[in-house]
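Bench log. Compound arrived from synthesis this morning; before running ITC I wanted a structural hypothesis for how S-adenosylmethionine sits in the protein. Inputs:
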Amino acid sequence: MNDLKSLLDMDLQAGEDDWTPTPHGQWLASVIARHDLVEGKEVLELGAGVANHTILIHRRGAKAITATEITEELLGTARTNFEANVGGDVPIDLRVADWLHTDGTFDMVVANPPFCQSGKQNRRYFIDSLILDGHKRLRPEGELLFVQSSMADVKMSLRRLNQNGFDARVVESTQGPFRDYYFDDPTFMAEIEQVDDAYEERDGTKYETLSVIHAKLRRWSPPATAHLPGR
Ligand SMILES: C[S@@+](CC[C@H](N)C(=O)[O-])C[C@H]1O[C@@H](n2cnc3c(N)ncnc32)[C@H](O)[C@@H]1O
């Protein structure tokens, strides 16, 4: 199954509380479908939602997949959709877990991190968490693959990734109009005015840029003089 249409063709069921894929998730899917990023890797996917990326990661030839959701109910949707599209005999490790708080190390962590509706004072919390603590779930030279909006400050992510030991790049970007719900949150609309290049406005319509970021951990060991009790 290698042509783009077949890779992205899925029958996805979603309940009221499930996250229906938005342009962010669709762009991440498009990039995973068109690039050799996950092939042969042991992948941890955070916040699998309706399993749109889980199915694709399998079709793109990942060696093994662990996928998480925040509740058993949400995880149930991912399980149902994965089995319906891939078959019940394909092994997958599905876990309830709060973001990176799970066991094990992997070749790659994939996510579409909550941002506009992250529910955190630092709206970038889930992106920053990946950048700061992603290494705990990664093997040496492990990789992060995630999508984010220009409104979440792509330059900040690239700078922080570099500070935290990653070689990072934008794989591909695309532009799309603001979703209606952005305008429902005046705090959000005020916050994005503080971000350089957060959006473009043309003919009265605001456009965000969606970027898929790939980051690879540089090999590194703390110096012998570092105070690391119990290491
Ligand atoms: C932006 S949606 C992405 C869903 C799907 N991956 C996609 O791209 O369409 C973020 C997902 O993360 C899940 N989520 C939210 N908080 C989480 C947490 N603390 N740990 C794990 N998943 C979480 C949500 O339930 C939601 O499915």
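What the model suggests: The radius of gyration is 18 Å. The pocket of S-adenosylmethionine is lined by residues 19, 21, 25, 46-49, 52-53, 68-70, 74, 98-99, 112, 114 (CB under 6 Å).
ITC booked for Thursday regardless.
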